[in-house]
Amino acid sequence: MKFILRLLLTALAVVLLAKLLPGITVTGYLSAIIVAVVLALLKLIVRPVLVILTLPITVLTLGLFLLIINAVIILLADAFIDGFAVSGFWIALVFSILLSIIQSILFSVLDTDND
């Protein structure tokens, strides 16, 4: 149940950011839910592989390269989903940073409600 609620909150954040950022388009709420599911799957499967492969540069940049990995995951989701479009790498980077911030705020509210 908590996983489904997190997916819906992520979809809400995707819709909100699509309205705020000029380079992000989402065709509808169903597309936003699909984006949330695909992002969850990509972060579960692809992100650990990319982190291991880029470990030396991640250590060298003190972890800042993880932001680049997150942007690449956003661009991969753009390639997989027809109703979701990202205009470029820098927009994907800004989108991933803002999505992470919004998710951390929403998920912290979600976790405090269960205590």
UniProtKB/TrEMBL annotation:
<dbReference type="InterPro" id="IPR007165">
    <property type="entry name" value="Phage_holin_4_2"/>
</dbReference>
<keyword id="KW-0812">Transmembrane</keyword>
<feature type="transmembrane region" description="Helical">
    <location>
        <begin position="53"/>
        <end position="77"/>
    </location>
</feature>
<protein>
    <recommendedName>
        <fullName>Phage holin family protein</fullName>
    </recommendedName>
</protein>
<keyword id="KW-0472">Membrane</keyword>
<feature type="transmembrane region" description="Helical">
    <location>
        <begin position="28"/>
        <end position="46"/>
    </location>
</feature>
<feature type="transmembrane region" description="Helical">
    <location>
        <begin position="89"/>
        <end position="110"/>
    </location>
</feature>
<keyword id="KW-1133">Transmembrane helix</keyword>
<dbReference type="Pfam" id="PF04020">
    <property type="entry name" value="Phage_holin_4_2"/>
</dbReference>
